Amino acid sequence: MTAPVRTQGSPETRGSPETRGSQELIRAEEPVLAHNYHPLPVVVARAEGTWVEDVEGRRYLDLLAGYSALNFGHRHPALVEAAHRQLDRLTLTSRAFHHDRLAEFAERLAALTGLDMVLPMNTGAEAVESAVKVARKWAYDVKGVPDGRATIVVAADNFHGRTTTIVSFSTDETARQGFGPFTPGFRIVPYNDLTALEAAVDETTAAVLIEPIQGEAGVIIPDDGYLTGVRELTRRKGCLFIADEIQSGLGRTGGTLAVEHESVVPDVVLLGKALGGGIVPVSAVVARREVLAVLRPGEHGSTFGGNPLAAAVGTAVVELLETGEFQQRATELGATLRDGLTELVGKGVVGFRSRGLWAGVDIDPALGTGREVSERLMREGVLVKDTHGSTIRLAPPLTITSEELVEALATLERVLR
Ligand SMILES: *Cc1c(COP(=O)(O)O)cnc(C)c1O
Fold first, then answer.
1. Which of 105, 309, 338, 396 is the most exposed place for a label (fewest CB within 10 A)?
2. Within-domain flag for 154
3. What is the pLDDT of residues 73-117, one digit of tens each?
4. Three-class SS string for the chain?
5. In the chain, how many domains are there?
6. What does pTM read for this prediction?
7. Is 151 a member of any domain?
8. Is 217 inside a domain boundary?
């Protein structure tokens, strides 16, 4: 590595990144980056495992883990090695040709989820979009819904991504306002309400699309029996059950999938985020054969979907999950997280919901907004993200040690005093 160039010139001189401090880099983003995010004022320069380091060398425990894209921590050695090996061999073919990494990725991912077939895509939103198309096509080709009439039933307060079609069935006005006209064909019912779901599903319904736990909404966990009810209802009414496990899946809740908590097998499972190991975007629609079989050549695609680098990293991710080690860590450390948060109830925390290494923590509004608490935690060396109002979300890498977790909870206790 060459030594960074130290600039001592005029204020106009643009130094190499290494010479610009956090404040300067934050200011530099302002005029040239779209303002669709409001990041915490921390500028990360390197990371390993559970820890990130900023431009000035300050270290932070990462308790957001890229919204669960970093379930295995930053730069997990097995994932980095898989990526390096593939970078030196083959990175892209497009699906115009076969490549030698795709079959194994699909075989092992299907086996891991207990389903049959895989449609590889890149981002989570693309997996959701693809599932919407597949469900509609299944409704017309298999179920016999009259063309153009298929409906998909979704839950209020959902988060499934940011495309035009996906925000069409969002109930978050900030996500929708100014982006219409919207895609028709969606019905929205309250989450965790089987009676409302039953009333919304009819002979036009292609699928019910829900998150087994609503992450962005504040880690909202449905009542026991809800997922079983959705499975029973969709089977009885003859429509598909699509589980968006993009944030809840791949070890986060203590199972490979969050639906395992009720031993439910959906018809379609959507994966993303952690499937790319925090290295490359990798997403997938994983489904029963009868469902994905509706797609014929030319009807759907993606230039980068299932590319060799993505398949190599995705296979390495599946390999990590095949041992069950991370699911077990999430379960065991999840108990530590739950116990620690229970201790904080009444001491700045008004309530929380958790499953595995995932928690939505409602802070006493008198102590500040979720944003303010996140900033205080940042100054104390812990990174989290607020969701709504005074709720913060904790989702540490599943590689976190119990000492680190206890340290983070002690920090939370301190900033809430
Ligand atoms: C993040 C997320 C998505 C969208 O994924 P992107 O990769 O950001 O497009 C979809 N569904 C859920 C549940 C998510 O958490």
1. 338
2. yes
3. 999 999 999 999 999 999 999 999 999 999 999 999 999 999 999
4. CCCCCCCCCCCCCCCCHHHCCHHHHHHHHCCCCCCCCCCCCCCEEEEEECEEEECCCCEEEECCHHHHCCCCCECCHHHHHHHHHHHCCCCCCCCCCCCCCHHHHHHHHHHHHCCCEEEEECCHHHHHHHHHHHHHHHHHHHHCCCCCCCEEEEECCCCCCCCHHHHHCCCCHHHHCCCCCCCCCEEEECCCCHHHHHHHCCCCEEEEEECCCECCCCCECCCCCHHHHHHHHHHHHCCEEEEECCCCCCCCCCCCCHHHHHCCCCCEEEECHHHHCCCCCCEEEEECHHHHCCCCCCCCCCCCCCCHHHHHHHHHHHHHHHCCHHHHHHHHHHHHHHHHHHHHECCCEEEEEECCCCEEEEECHHHCCHHHHHHHHHHCCEECEECCCCEEEECCCCCCCHHHHHHHHHHHHHHCC
5. 1
6. 0.95
7. yes
8. yes
